[in-house]
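Troubleshooting: if your tokenizer reports a length mismatch, compare your output against this known-good record of 259 residues.
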Amino acid sequence: MMKFLPLLALSLVASIPAFAHSGRPEVTVNFSKTYAISDHGTVEIGNMNGNVQIVAWERNEVSVEAEKFARDDEDLKRIEIVVDAASDRIVIKTRHHKNEDRPWWSKDRWSSNGGVRYRIKVPASLASFKADVMNSNVTVDGVRSRVKINSMNGRITASGLNGDTDLGTMNGAISATFARIKSGQSIRLETMNGSCRVEVPQDTNATLRASSMNGGVSCDLPITLEKSGRHSLRGTIGHGGASIELHSMNGSLSLRSRT
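Known-good structure output:
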């Protein structure tokens, strides 16, 4: 669970209310831009407040469609979308600027009362994609590269995965579906307060390590067991080759055959 410590520290100094879907009035402004990238480049995004949707397409371009939202125009002005684009690496960040009109000790000095919703299209053959988000649900579809996502307060839903995968969330569930599992592939899913559900092809060959402190663990694929209990499972599926690790503190874990 050590991977969650940076996010936890961030939440203590910059907790911003995620009110976008609470029914309160909001003002918005749209952002749209496309950037060229090599077919084996990398894309990273950092966001606080606002869902992130990642979709793969067959172009050597990254399309960023975003909607900034806030409770009023003044809060909206303090939210900035920053894109650092190079031919082989694109970094997208949301910056929340402090409110200079508030005293230094006021929590409202650091709160923009808003965020950004993203829809990003990336090349399917991308070398890697990385997201670090807070108060955000993340969905990923069709990315065949390495995928790493860290989230605090939000679900992660990924489909069509094909490469090394590292998904972690605090206070949210993870659902991941893999198009194929290759020899040597590394898959790791970890939650603190949420369940993990993984679907893999029927012909998967992998070693499985799954443990939950306060949740059940299950696998419906044929497995040669090394250890089995209510809260843990260890064994080999097929002849091994790939590595699958599932961990949770307060949530169930399941590995299923994809239909």
